[in-house]
Amino acid sequence: MRAWGAGGDAVAGARSLAARIAGGGLLGLAVILLGLAAGALMAMAEFLPILSIEVGGLPCPADFTLVDDCEPTGGDRHSYALVLLGALSVVMAFGAGAGRSAPAAIALAILGLAAIGIAVLSDLNYVNDTGIVLTSTVEEGVATASIGLWLELTGGVIALAAAAVALARQRLDY
């Protein structure tokens, strides 16, 4: 069985990838590292709470029967879409950084905008919303932003920054 890469072996393929990354220079490496960070933050946001429901300034009461509703994760809110956006961001960052691909840089910017759009349109507009929380008594609860929301916003902004660096490098190359 033959492995991938130049000459048919994995070692040569890894050397080829390392050579492409090194050939991209410092700006190419910056694009790749920013893309990796953006992808990681987007993916992590799906597994962490996006919102936190507080009742009387305190976290959800322990007797709250719908505990999952106290701190909905990104995955609960948007079906793990940011995991896909994060993975695509990493791939596009490698294309834009090591491959000097302008279409990959533009795709990376679009992925960053999509992550920001999901955060703003789907999650951020629920921050400070109030509603009835059914506990042993009926109380009013308020939604506050949690770590996942900030991670998805930051991931989108970092993806935009990576795309901007990649596109600026394109202009410097010509």
What does this structure look like?
By secondary structure, the protein is of the alpha+beta class. The chain starts with 9 loop residues before the first helix and ends with a helix. Helix content is 61%, strand content 11%. The protein has one domain (25-173). Helix 2 packs antiparallel against helix 4, helix 4 runs antiparallel to helix 5 and helix 4 packs parallel to helix 6. Strand 1 (51-55) and strand 2 form a beta hairpin.
Q: Which terms would index this structure?
A:
11% strand; disordered N terminus; 174 residues; alpha+beta
Please outline what is shown here.
With 174 residues, the protein is of the alpha+beta class. The chain has one domain (25-173).
Quaternary state of the chains: single chain
- How far the N terminus sits from the C terminus, by CA atoms, comes to 42 Å
Number of helices: 6
| Mean of residue pLDDT values | 85
Question: What is the topological layout?
Answer:
Layout lengths: L9 H14 L1 H21 L5 E5 L2 E2 L14 H5 L2 H17 L4 H22 L6 E5 L3 E8 L1 H27 L1
Antiparallel strand pairs: 1-2, 1-4, 3-4
Helix pairs in contact: 2-4, 2-6, 4-5, 4-6, 5-6
